[in-house]
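INFO batch 0412 | record 1 of 1 | parsing
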Amino acid sequence: MDVMEKLQILADSAKYDVACTSSGSNRKGVAGAIGNSVAPGICHTFSADGRCISLLKILYTNHCIFDCKYCINRSSNDVQRVSFTPEEVCRLTIEFYRRNYIEGLFLSSGINHSPNETMAEIVEALMLLREKYHFNGYIHCKAIPGADPDLVELAGWYADRMSVNLELPTTEGLRTLAPHKNRKNILLPMRQIQSGIEENMQALGVNDSRGRYWYTARELGRKEENSTLLLREKLRQKIALQEHVQENIISEKEQNSKTDALPAVLREDTFHTGIPGLHMQKEAKWANQSHTGRFVPAGQSTQMIIGATGESDYQILAVSEALYKKFDLKRVFYSAFIRVNEDSALPVLPGGPPLKREHRLYQADWLLRYYGFEANELLSEQQPNFNEFLDPKCDWALRHPEQFPVEVNQADYYTLLRVPGIGVRSARRIMQARKTARLDFNDLKKVGVVLKRAIYFITCSGSSYYSLKLSEGMILQNLLLAEKPPKQEDTCFQQLTLFDGTYREFLQECGSA
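INFO prediction complete | emitting tokens
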């Protein structure tokens, strides 16, 4: 099979992996190298500065030893199996880049034969791409759960971003739909990448690889993870590994038989990794060059499948919050479950993939990272799921009338962010503009505030937009109409009454319209 036929199969197989947006890595072009990496973002969309940019998004192989019930590439499926070679991955990336098709590479993979063998081939591809082909562009690489820590670490010196897919939100869900995987093997490389980033940032004296949740928590004075303890734990684990290797001498015959099965580029006699017969360079050449020396400079991310198991939105959001707190992730991606396999353990989903639910979770995720909210503020065990018809911030504001109205000329930054219709940019503009003048509603519109949401929750110099105080039901009705304006033929006219039951039915009809 030629490379283009492989590309068609493996690019199609990679479409279900959504954790590939946002570069976060800024690396200028240098003489003798191809490409660069720009911080505003690399994805299949428009970036923050208006550029339309993309990645070459492929699987290294769709062979897999696991039989996850939700995966199209599971071992029990009868699909055409193919694999790239490291050289083919390099040639595709370089040729596509030269033709201006792509700005970077997103490389994921199934698990062929073993996690170590697959991860070793991925590392070889990255090493060739950086050192032989001198590719200076963006690379996002998936770490294979269960692979040797030294392979993961070596990949981290060549990649801009790494990710380890959490797959499903809870251990119970993973046990049900992916019984061959375990949560420990997923969290260990995630912790290793985090510790490596921490150590590298301290060594270089930089602080720009943190996730946005970390900065928001620090600005609000919340308790942070002690990075010094993480580094000490990593050092302790390395010492323990070295002692274990010294105590267990492996026979020469066993070493040679297992070394022969590995890519040639990883057989150099440098230092022992802890895998019998596997030796590799202690430090990547790419990391020692003058223009880099950064370990996973764009941070790490993960992905969860939503709707395949019975977790509530509250459970999912709590898991995301814990990942941001404990692993300092840049992003958690939510992928609506698509039923690609026929299996009795999978939900039927007569209405199709839960795309609205995915959308609400993404909105709530931004509230966690940028707006200073916590999971237990947005949802609770008594209200475990988001309202499909209303965005999470509006829903929270209606449930907390005691927080409003907010005086825009006096409120602090994070209080302004809690007002529906006021985002990060408009809040910063308000903070800047009110240094020289008192703002009114016309001024707020000019700085980007969405007044159709905000007018119910703010005052300007003590004055409300409406002379009469609106009831909670009327505000809800107006917000629903602003969220999804009804079509002319669907508009319902009805005389309102003061009776709750009739009014509630009217709101339900407008919501369904």
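INFO post-check: Residues 3-327 form one domain.
INFO record closed
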